[in-house]
């Protein structure tokens, strides 16, 4: 196992306080590009570890495929997703499909890296029933809505019977009844129009499960131990509530990873909604939350 794979295994045993301390820690400036990539990777791995801890309610058990082809596909996630998968499934071959060129940082030996010019180009270059597990975390932001049903059918083709599709969804805007006018205006002005221009699905938590079912998959229900999480947009720094602060930091990091590329720089505005004091005060008062969660579905 690589250093990062061993590191990920140790991360899995960390509690909320340890994870929060690592995310809040002041990181030293890297000395070169490779060190910078390792630093970014470690930060993203702590975020993923925190998400799993929060999503599973501390049970630390996730649904598993009901077959084993020895092969897993990661669709377009960031490199941290790939390292996490490779450590969790060190005896499997992890195929990574991405639009990013391969980095100078060495990959784990069980990872196969394939770069494509743009996401969502079908068919994928593997035969039927190749994989026992397919995972995706940013589909809604990478692929136009109209292409998602066809892409999900392609995932169905690639999975062996008993194979599992795992998709993480996060809506672009907070839950409507919790969002105030300042937050709604920020999302509308800085994000929504750009999503509409590029035909992206802004409400994947509502729509993607239906498309997954239509593609032939059998969805796990929330009572099976997984569901949609509520991630607060702001926390009270005087409450010393570790879970609330950790959920807030995870929510911001995941939102930025999924939707951040659609935010265009504005010379007179702050870069992110959590840097706007007025928006943050409103979110704290209204207890504004985003919805985010992983869905799991099987090919029967």
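-> sequence recovered:
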């Amino acid at each position: 196992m690589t250093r990062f794979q061993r590191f990920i295994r140790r991360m899995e045993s960390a509690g909320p306080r340890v994870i929060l301390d690592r995310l809040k820690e002041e990181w030293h400036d890297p000395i070169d590009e490779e060190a910078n990539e390792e630093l970014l990777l470690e930060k993203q791995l702590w975020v993923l570890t925190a998400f799993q801890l929060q999503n599973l309610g501390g049970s630390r058990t996730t649904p598993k495929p009901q077959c084993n082809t020895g092969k897993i596909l990661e669709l377009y996630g960031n490199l941290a997703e790939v390292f996490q998968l490779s450590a969790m499934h060190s005896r499997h071959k992890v195929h990574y499909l991405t639009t990013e060129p391969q980095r100078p940082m060495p990959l784990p030996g069980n990872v196969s890296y394939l770069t494509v010019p743009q996401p969502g180009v079908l068919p994928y270059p593997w035969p039927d029933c190749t994989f026992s597990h397919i995972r995706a975390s940013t589909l809604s932001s990478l692929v136009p809505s109209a292409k998602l049903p066809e892409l999900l059918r392609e995932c169905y083709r690639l999975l062996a019977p008993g194979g599992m599709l795992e998709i993480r969804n996060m809506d672009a805007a907070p839950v409507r009844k919790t969002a105030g006018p300042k937050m709604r205006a920020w999302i509308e002005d800085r994000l929504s129009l750009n999503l509409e221009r590029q035909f992206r699905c802004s409400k994947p938590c509502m729509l993607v499960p239906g498309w997954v079912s239509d593609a032939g998959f059998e969805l796990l229900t929330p009572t099976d131990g997984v569901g949609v999480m509520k991630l607060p947009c702001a926390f009270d720094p005087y409450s010393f509530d570790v879970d609330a602060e950790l959920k807030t930091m995870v929510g911001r990091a995941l939102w930025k990873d999924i939707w951040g590329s659609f935010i265009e720089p504005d010379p007179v505005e702050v870069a992110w909604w959590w840097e706007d004091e007025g928006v943050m005060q409103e979110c704290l008062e209204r207890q504004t939350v985003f919805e985010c969660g992983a869905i799991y579905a099987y090919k029967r």
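The longest strand covers residues 159-170.
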